[in-house]
Amino acid sequence: MSSFSSPFHGVFFDLDGTLADTAPDLVAATNKLLTARNLDPKPYQFLRPYASAGARGLLEGAFGIGTDHPDFVTLRDEFFSNYEKALLVESKLFEDIDHLLDQMDQANLPWGIVTNKSQRFTNPLVELMGLHERSASTVSGDTTPHSKPHPEPILHAARLANIDPIKSLYVGDDIRDVIAGKAAGMKTVAAAYGYCGCKEPPEAWGADYLINSPLELVNIIFPNRD
């Protein structure tokens, strides 16, 4: 595997819905809000796409409210508390992601994580998943003054990893990821297997590549393998 060569000098991933399937625990934290108010929990498949937008999206899906609603902050903070207590109950890496990361590690191809999730949740989750020591850089939504779709978090991750963004790849399951990756000068991959919660389908995001499973990334990252 170490003889694999790649046209990229580094690969960066969104976390929720791209690298890790965290929706089960995010939805559970959301439904706990509903049941605490004697409301029926929402079906998992209904709330899953909203996980792409974090607390904001999940509260919209569960309660039909936006950030300007007077109850938003209270519900958001309670959601954060619920989620923080159960970060890694059912969450796991997507199938074949660990295989992909192993191949990149063996090829000495650095990879990193750029997420809009706050450090409060990103750092312990990445640690619990055993990714902290392997990741060349991990950047959260509050690491820099900006979050995606602004390119600064991705550029910051590339600087930390000492990788030229122009020679890098960014993989994400939301149109914000593609916008941010392109603005950072990276080639982009739309992960159609993820949560894809925005209105536009992944085919319309303008990504350089579209994948329906993480395994398809192997051929993009290592196009010359046997």
Describe the protein's topology.
Blueprint: E1 10-13, E2 20-21, H1 23-36, H2 44-47, H3 54-63, H4 72-84, E3 92-93, H5 97-106, E4 111-114, H6 119-128, E5 138-139, H7 152-161, E6 168-172, H8 175-183, E7 187-191, E8 209-211, H9 216-221
Parallel strand pairs: 1-4, 1-6, 4-5, 6-7, 7-8
Antiparallel strand pairs: 2-3
Helix pairs in contact: 1-3, 1-4
Report what the structure shows:
With 226 residues, the chain is an alpha/beta fold. It has 9 helices and 8 strands. The chain has helices spanning 23-36, 44-47, 54-63, 72-84, 97-106, 119-128, 152-161, 175-183, 216-221, and strands at 10-13, 20-21, 92-93, 111-114, 138-139, 168-172, 187-191, 209-211. A 6-stranded parallel sheet has the order 5-4-1-6-7-8, sandwiched between helices. Strands 2-3 form a two-stranded antiparallel ribbon. Helix 8 (175-183) links the parallel strand 6 (168-172) and strand 7. Helix 1 (23-36) crosses helix 3 and helix 1 packs across helix 4. The longest helix has 14 residues, at 23-36. The protein starts with 9 loop residues before the first strand and ends in a 5-residue tail after the last helix. The mean pLDDT is 96.
